[in-house]
Amino acid sequence: MTPEIENAFAAIRSDHGAESLSRVERMLEPGGAGPRHPLQKGAKWILPGLSPTPWHDPHAHPELTSVVDALESAHPVIKDELNSAWEMRREAFSDYEHYLTRQEDWQALYLYRDGAMVEESAGAVPTAHKVLKEFAVDAEKICPLLESHFSTLLPGASIAPHCDLWNFSINLHLAVDIPDGCSITVAGETRTWHEGHCLLFDYSFEHEARNDGDRPRTCLLVDLWHPETTIPERRALVALISEIRRLMGES
Predict the structure, then answer these.
(1) Domain ranges of the chain
(2) Residue 50 carries which DSSP code?
(3) How far apart are the C-alpha atoms of 37 and 187, rounded to whole Å?
């Protein structure tokens, strides 16, 4: 570890106790996370002690209930504003740049990125912007290392099987506009979205998605802290990943 990371960890231990970062420290040891599920092997970081569960009930975690309820309640307005933005403000959307690839048939409208709300999106999708800020960002439930965006798969598009980087955040999908013929598969189990409802899954497990419908499929994606992580662990993980990105020359 660099001196910057060591100093950050020391400050967190001072605030929260000597054992508060034991799982993060184990994660950094070779093999420290223990055996992985075969469909998690593509992930870079596995924080030990988190339930190895691919699919989660979005209403089962008290910490996340307010986010889920607020998004689902606001769905009709969110959908109307999203469709208007798609028709009238297409320039606000961009090709999605996953850390593995870039896809022209996968469009994104960002609400939160690089640790802050994307204020330019407030005019295009004000309700989603407001709900996300109040219930996820201000409440510190969003993982600031990641993002939130409207994810639009064009007809015929597919997202190849892949694992995301780690298991200490978790991916929430609000189904905004879903045609027939769309599906998502996580750890070999295929489900579909139901408009106005959320799906929640651990994207350190291999997952893929496709739109075999005749119009775009849009979900609002939010990267939230895994509810089984602790406050000191979250502080340490932000310090760790931010320093690694700085050393690698990433923004």
Answers:
(1) 55-225
(2) S
(3) 9
Residue pLDDT, tens place only, 205-235: 999 999 999 999 999 999 999 999 999 999 9
Candidates 3.40.50.300, 3.30.465.10, 3.30.300.30, 2.60.120.330; correct CATH number of 55-225?
2.60.120.330
Q: Which residue has the tokens 């996300």?
A: 132
**Number of CB atoms found within 10 A of residue 189's CB:** 12
| Residue carrying the six token digits 């999708």 | 125
State pTM to two decimals: 0.94
Q: CA 95 to CA 108: how far, in whole Å?
A: 6
Distance CA 121, CA 143 (A): 19
Please tell me whether residue 216 adopts helix, strand or coil conformation.
Answer: coil
CA-nearest of 166, 223, 206, 208 to 44 is 166
For 15, 46, 69, 141, the CA distances from 229, given in Å and listed in that order, are: 17, 12, 21, 11
246, amino acid identity: R
